[in-house]
Write a structure and sequence with these properties.
Layout (H helix, E strand, L loop, with lengths): L1 H11 L3 E5 L4 E7 L6 H5 L7 E7 H16 L4 E7 L8 H14 L6 E6 L1 H13 L6 E5 L2 H7 L4 E6 L2 E8 L4 E5 L8 H18 L1 H15 L3 H21 L17 H11 L7 H18 L5 H13 L15 H8 L12 E6 L2 E5 L4 H10 L3
Parallel strand pairs: 2-9, 3-4, 3-5, 5-6, 6-9
Antiparallel strand pairs: 1-2, 7-8, 10-11
The chain binds nicotinamide-adenine-dinucleotide (NAD) and magnesium ion (MG).
The site of magnesium ion has 5 residues, from helix 11.
Protein name: Multifunctional fusion protein
GO biological process, one term: aromatic amino acid family biosynthetic process
Subcellular location: Cytoplasm
Length: about 375
């Protein structure tokens, strides 16, 4: 039938989202079974048939044999380095140990580093690729929904510092990104929700077309429907590629890449409260942050109430965190505001916030006083 033919053709010619940057261009390939055929996709864009795969224990157990076989089939010699999973691995200590192991194993300027896992592995592997021998080729094979829709596109790499998340790093672009949607079948539901929150964020920034798509297909994405997931990844990557192409290093005075932080000032403050131990996932914090940023926009008179109602309905209908009530315990508004004040985007003591006028119309501001945010958080249930 037509559908089978379409499925077959997607299989042979998976959708590609091109990312065109001033100095470099690469493709994000999206579709099923890309891992099993990784060698065929990667070989044309790397300079030497040697690779180092960086992955975590969970992804290694579930998916590494298929990747190693897919590489070997095209004659790519690869050695895998497996780290422990979790945010704690995005540290200078793990970076130092891993890069020393890799250098001791022996790599050349043309050896490719492959990041195979979620955002933790991708950010760490990218930073190793950026710094080993002052830069070796890099390939991203993201395996979580969050890393497929967000972290694998755009070239931000790095590790966390004692004083905060992502404070050490580099912009470093991959040769290619393989977003294998079949890998998502083993992802726990909670991780799917967390990744989907970044698609909702993209919809709020991009406009009614993407946000409306979320309202129609979000439930299918969250249920793990492969076609809906692939389409969500494609749309979110296309959106992020557009934003990054226009403002690669987040230097635009207004708008640009900074808009991707919608909900994130609140999210980072919540994550700092819970301490990155898995009790609150980044995407869960983002989901609450989207509600808070929109609710603050309404309170300040920038945004109409019905936008907030529409967002909250979508989040709650899909069982996503949509407010501070999700915690079932009161948080301190004072602590959250001081967490927000430690953001690396602070300038001259002013918070950098992304607010929303309507779906598809967000803006950055440094004009909201911390006392206003403090009172707002108290009214939100702190
Ligand atoms: P993660 O990498 O910690 O992965 C989450 C969990 O899922 C881990 O336990 C991992 O082992 C497991 N996992 C991965 N793939 C799986 C699969 N296919 N099946 C089953 N389990 C699987 O977390 P994440 O949410 O992917 O990424 C979060 C990180 O990404 C954060 O450190 C964040 O700062 C970073 N990030 C970076 C950017 C960027 O632009 N570079 C953007 C957004 C987020
Ligand atoms: Mg994010």
């Amino acid at each position: 039938s037509k559908r089978v033919l379409e499925a077959l053709s997607t299989h042979r010619h998976p959708p590609r989202v091109p990312v065109h940057l001033a100095s470099h261009r690469y493709d994000v390939m999206i579709g099923p079974d890309l891992i099993a055929r990784a060698g065929a996709h990667i070989a044309p864009v790397i300079p030497q048939k040697r690779a180092i795969v960086i992955t975590d224990e969970r992804v290694a157990a579930l998916h590494l044999p298929r990747l190693m076989q897919g590489l070997a089939e095209t004659g790519i010699t690869a050695r895998a380095f497996v780290i422990r999973g979790g945010e704690e691995s995005k540290s200078l200590a793990v970076y130092a140990e891993l890069i020393n192991d890799i250098l001791a194993h022996g790599i050349e300027r043309h050896t490719t580093i492959i990041g195979f896992g979620g955002g933790v592995v991708g950010d760490l592997a990218g930073f190793i690729a950026a710094t080993a021998l002052r830069g070796v080729p890099f390939v991203q094979i993201p395996t979580t929904l969050l890393s497929q829709v967000d972290s694998s596109v755009g070239g931000k790499t790095g590790v966390n510092a004692t004083s905060g998340k992502n404070l050490i790093g580099a912009f470093y672009q991959p040769q290619i990104v393989l977003a294998d949607t079949s890998a998502l079948s083993t992802l726990p539901h909670r991780e799917r929700v967390a990744g989907y929150a970044e698609i909702v964020k993209a919809g709020l920034i991009d406009g009614p077309d993407l946000f409306g798509w979320c309202e129609t297909h979000g439930a299918a994405v969250l249920a793990g429907d492969p076609a809906a997931q692939a389409e969500g990844v494609r749309r979110a990557c296309a959106f992020k590629a557009r934003v990054v192409q226009a403002d690669e290093r987040e230097q635009a005075a207004q708008g640009g890449r900074a808009l991707l932080n919608l909900g994130h000032s609140f999210a980072h403050a919540l994550e700092a409260w819970f301490g990155y131990d898995g009790r609150l996932l980044h995407g869960e914090a983002v989901s609450i942050g989207l509600h808070l940023a929109t609710s603050l926009s309404v309170r300040l008179g920038f945004c109409e109430e019905h936008t907030l109602t529409r967002l909250d309905a979508h989040l709650r209908q899909n069982g996503m965190p949509a407010g501070l009530d999700w915690f079932g315990e009161p948080l301190s508004a004072g602590t959250l505001v001081s967490n927000m004040a430690r953001d690396k985007k602070m300038r001259d003591g002013q918070l950098a916030l992304v607010l929303i006028r309507r779906i598809g119309d967000c803006f950055t501001t440094r004009d909201v006083p911390m006392t206003t945010v403090f009172e707002f958080l108290q009214d939100e249930g702190c």
